[in-house]
């Protein structure tokens, strides 16, 4: 736990809060969540966090006021605000209150991860290569390019998101529900069978006709087993 990046999430919507907890913990972050803003100040005094995900509309106060008070107290934790408001004036207000970034709901989980990584890099918390390598597959998170045995592979955004997650956690079994939330978002209300469709398309593009690269874990979902050799 000591080596994990700690993120404090203040979000009163239980669906979004659960979505963030599940997704970010799968990404290896240590997550603490609260639904009320008044808890933020005491919690930040008790424990050291590397990032604050802060909802603007909270039941007891506003994220703007929380962020402004934190900056007045000299707290320099990176703050990423989450809100349903999409007016330029609201974004300006959020940044003027001391937030480092601003993301409008509903948001894509991959965009959230990218913004989190950017804030952590900017604050000196992490330094990472944009390229992920697993077996004979190379994926670049910045250019969103994929190569297999040195040859480019064209993927849709959803297929790219699936492969990125699989490559980050080889051999881990993912349920269809986790994959659905991860690549389709918390506001998607369709069935989990859409994941089977995307996985099948991804297998074809990766020449995985025998399903040895992306394996079906019966009763669970899927797991990624990169080839040892090209």
Indicate the topology:
Layout: E1 6-10, H1 14-26, E2 30-34, H2 39-46, E3 51-55, H3 63-72, E4 79-83, H4 88-96, E5 101-104, H5 109-122, E6 131-134, E7 137-140, E8 145-148, E9 151-153, H6 157-168, E10 174-175, H7 176-184, H8 193-205, E11 214-217, E12 221-224
Parallel strand pairs: 1-2, 1-3, 3-4, 4-5
Antiparallel strand pairs: 6-7, 7-8, 8-9, 10-12, 11-12
Helix pairs in contact: 6-7, 6-8
Q: Can you give keywords for this protein?
A:
alpha/beta; Arc Repressor Mutant, subunit A; 2 domains; five-stranded parallel sheet; Rossmann fold; four-stranded antiparallel sheet; single chain
Widest sheet: strand order? 2-1-3-4-5
What's the count of strands? 12
How far the N terminus sits from the C terminus, by CA atoms, comes to: 35 Å
For CATH, the homologous superfamily of the largest domain is named as: Response regulator
Number of helices: 8
Any guess at the CATH architecture of the largest domain? 3-Layer(aba) Sandwich
> What coarse outline follows from CA principal-axis ratios?
elongated
Structural class: alpha/beta
Strand content: 15-25%
Low-confidence stretches: none
Order of helices and strands: EHEHEHEHEHEEEEHEHHEE
User: Measured on Cα atoms, how large is the radius of gyration?
Assistant: 19 Å
- Rounded average pLDDT: 86
